[in-house]
Write a structure and sequence with these properties.
- By secondary structure, this protein is of the alpha/beta class.
- The protein has three domains: 110 residues, Beta Complex (Beta-clip-like); 152 residues, no CATH class; 239 residues, Alpha/Beta hydrolase fold, catalytic domain (Rossmann fold, 3-Layer(aba) Sandwich).
- The chain is built from 19 helices and 21 strands.
- Helix 16 links the parallel strand 18 and strand 19.
- Helix 15 crosses helix 16.
- The longest helix has 20 residues.
- This is Acyl-protein thioesterase 1.
Length: 604
């Protein structure tokens, strides 16, 4: 019988970084040859085996022969749903997954509850039809109201089985996660990777999930009350509404299918899906219809192997589905399951907008990040110089929908490179505001945006000038900290690049420099009169990828030419990167560092 093998050691040539289209992903730190093992997730945080396969799929290594029952079963009491391909798997499961017997007890309680469910009274929760109607226009406020109603409704007594639709596989997944959390809280030193914190770091997708499948919200409400009724009382401490919602919000879009497969093969072709599991670290491999990485399950472990040669700085992506499908069918399925509106790289901004709007991640960054200065009213990530007192500063503005934390990796990158150690970094956070391009929904932005194709039309000059005042306030704050204006650089990426160019041009004191990556010059015609003469000779760094699908390359180049020809800005260093999209790669960061060394060199 197959047994779990020790996963091979992966390459250490990748790291997680913010992506330019939203969220985070893995990127190559150096060139990686094809067929290189780059990542191993030894074990999932939680999982659920489909009921029809529970006697055919090993609960430890997931080995399965469809149509044939396994011979080994967990022997601790009347444990439901755990079968094994051999004695070794059974011993390892009992020693690592069910040390105190709670997992087996909880699953047995679930099975008994499923059988009794039809004989019980319905719970007093919001009516399913009412929820279904409301969810056609569901927003975060409405979703919070529904869950508050569920929390305020009388909960069934323990053992009183509520009626209503319960997703049994989802109930198993939640129970598995809560047992792990309980075991950790009972014995904090015993928690193994992945941890509850790793799990919570995943992207929550609750709002998109219920918008696309509104009928699931009543099911989740019933499932919560069902679990409160049937699970062992020892789990009551972790079976809170908060933990339940945290778990269900991270299942959609982050789960991997457990497929019937020969050992070491990728699976998920014509094979049976046996269940699904959540590997937090593997979830940062994003989708691409032309993937450069393939996922290969090795027993219980999920491994990632390069499918072709990967360049330094390139994102590592896998396929979330069947590439042999018709393109439109693949897009439809990916939209339903993973909330993608378009998966081609040219349209990744749409994915960017959707994910960021439904996520509270940015809001948490804005208000609760420990690096935020308590002394300042301006929300920003502030990173001090690494070699003592700073003698220069860079204020770097993020792009649409991002956050200051999303670009703070620049400071970390230069710290690893032992360069620019005399510079203090400030990464401000844009406020939440309605974005016309995104249907009026609120997201972090420096100004409203109506089009990606006609950036010069219907500019939000009011929003731009308000944000310029914010950046100028950060310049003033930096000057008051002891760094003069002529040692301060204003920079940014995408929408932040536009703000850097505008803010720098109209600032009333001479700055050390202005830097714009993958952006354009806003309010161009008005700058003829608005620009300040003190910054007429200020050095400017501008860089753009020739394959940028978001802010077109020609917009960036035309902005550079306008600055030179119409505004007389001669000290412009222009860099273009063939084939680069809407991102910043290592070569661009190196060019930026060399430019910074010139405009704000270290002081003795």
């Amino acid at each position: 019988m197959p047994s779990p093998e020790t996963p091979p050691t992966p390459s250490n040539s990748i790291e997680i970084r913010p992506t330019t289209y939203g969220g985070r992903g893995y990127f190559a730190l150096s060139p990686i040859p094809a067929n290189t093992l780059i990542h191993v997730s030894p074990s999932p945080y939680t999982l659920s085996i489909i009921r029809d396969f529970k006697k055919e799929c090993c609960a430890r290594c997931f080995h399965c022969v469809v149509g044939r029952n396994l011979k080994w079963r967990a022997e601790r009491g009347n444990v439901a749903g755990f079968w094994f391909c051999g004695e070794r798997c059974k011993r390892e499961w009992e020693g690592e997954e069910d040390v105190a017997g709670l997992l087996g007890e909880a699953m047995e309680c679930l099975e008994r509850g499923f059988k009794r469910q039809k004989r019980a009274e319905p719970p007093r929760t919001p009516d399913g039809k009412e929820v279904g109607r409301a969810s056609t226009t569901m927003d975060e406020e409405m979703l919070e109201r529904v869950w508050k109603d569920a929390a305020d409704a009388p909960w069934p007594k323990h053992g009183q089985i509520p009626d209503g639709e319960v997703d049994q596989e989802e109930a198993r997944l939640i129970t598995y996660a809560l047992v792990r959390l309980h075991n950790f809280l009972s014995s904090p030193g015993s928690e193994s990777s992945p941890t509850w914190s790793d799990f919570l770091a995943l992207q929550p997708n609750a709002l998109s999930h219920f918008r696309s499948q509104p009928y699931l919200l009543p099911s989740h409400l019933h499932t919560f009350h069902f679990l409160r009724s049937v699970l062992p009382k020892s789990l009551r401490g972790v079976l809170t509404l908060e933990n339940f919602r945290a778990t269900t919000a991270r299942d959609p879009g982050n789960s991997f299918g457990i497929w019937e497969q020969a050992e070491g093969e990728e699976g998920d072709g014509e094979s049976e899906m046996l269940g699904w599991a959540m590997y937090p670290s593997a979830s940062y491999f994003n989708h691409d219809c032309d993937p450069n990485t393939k996922k290969v399950r090795r027993g219980r472990a999920m491994t990632m192997v390069t499918a072709r040669d990967v360049a330094e700085g390139e994102e590592l992506c896998i396929s979330y589905g069947h590439l042999e499908e018709d393109v439109l069918e693949r897009r439809r399925r990916l939209e339903d399951k993973f909330f993608f509106s378009q998966l081609d790289k040219t349209y990744r901004l749409l994915l960017y907008l959707i994910v960021l709007v439904v996520s509270l991640y940015s809001v948490y960054i804005y208000h609760f990040n420990p690096k935020m200065s308590a002394a300042s009213s301006i929300s920003a990530i502030r990173i001090p110089a690494t070699n003592g007192a700073a003698t220069a500063a860079v204020i770097f503005a993020h792009g649409l929908g991002d956050s200051g934390a999303g670009w703070s990796f620049i400071a970390d990158h230069y710290k690893r490179e032992k360069s620019l150690q005399h510079i203090k970094w400030i990464f401000p956070n844009a406020p939440l505001r309605p974005i016309t391009l995104n249907g009026g929904m609120r997201m972090p932005a420096w100004y409203d945006l109506t089009s990606l194709e006609r950036v010069e039309e219907a500019e939000d000059s009011v929003g731009m000038l308000q944000s310029a005042e914010t950046i100028h306030a950060l310049v003033k704050e930096t000057i008051e900290s002891g760094i003069p204006a002529d040692r301060i650089v204003i920079g940014g990426f995408s929408q932040g690049s536009a703000m850097a160019l505008l803010s720098g041009m109209i600032h009333k004191e001479k700055l050390a420099g202005i830097a714009g990556m993958s952006g354009y010059l806003p309010m161009a015609s008005k700058l003829v009169d608005m620009r300040h003469p003190h910054n007429q000779e200020t050095p400017i760094f501008m860089a753009h990828g020739t394959a940028d699908p978001v802010v077109k390359f020609q917009f960036g180049k035309m902005s550079m030419e306008y600055l030179k020809e119409k505004l007389g800005m001669e000290k412009i260093e222009w860099r273009e990167y063939p084939g680069m999209g809407h991102t910043a790669d290592l070569k661009e960061l190196a060019d930026f560092a060399r430019w910074l060394e010139k405009v704000v060199p270290p002081k003795n």
